[in-house]
Amino acid sequence: MTQPQIHPERQARVRKALKFFSTAAFVTGIWLLILVAEMIYKYLILPSPSDAPGWFFYVAQAHGVFYMIYLITTVNLGINARWEPLKWITTALAGTIPFLSFVAEHKRRKEVTAQFQL
């Protein structure tokens, strides 16, 4: 049984949304790992958290900004791929657990690529 042909314009929209999502998932995952390393250093290695360099504050801020971009790209891909709400929620939460954004990106990329014949 063959899948119905997907309109080329829709394929292009989904391909573009998937590209932005994949990039955001990767960047968010990297910044989350940096944030975790910073927190381990700050709270487990340093004698006191107040001894941490001032620039540590910006690591959490950067991850927050990239996570918001990740959420926007998740919504964009979800709208274009017509995901069910549970898929949106699980994908969005993947950006909060170390390494899970990479796993979620890989899984969603495979699903969307197969579904839309990309």
Automatic annotation (TrEMBL):
Compartment annotation: Cell membrane
Transmembrane domains' residue ranges: 20-43, 55-79
InterPro entries linked: DUF3817_TM
DUF3817 domain ranges (all copies): 18-109
Membrane topology: Multi-pass membrane protein
Keywords for the protein's UniProt record, in alphabetical order: Cell membrane, Membrane, Transmembrane, Transmembrane helix
Gene Ontology CC entries for this record: plasma membrane
Keyword match Transmembrane: yes
UniProt main location, coarse: membrane
Protein name: DUF3817 domain-containing protein
The organism of origin for this protein: Corynebacterium kalinowskii
Phylogenetic lineage: Bacteria, Bacillati, Actinomycetota, Actinomycetes, Mycobacteriales
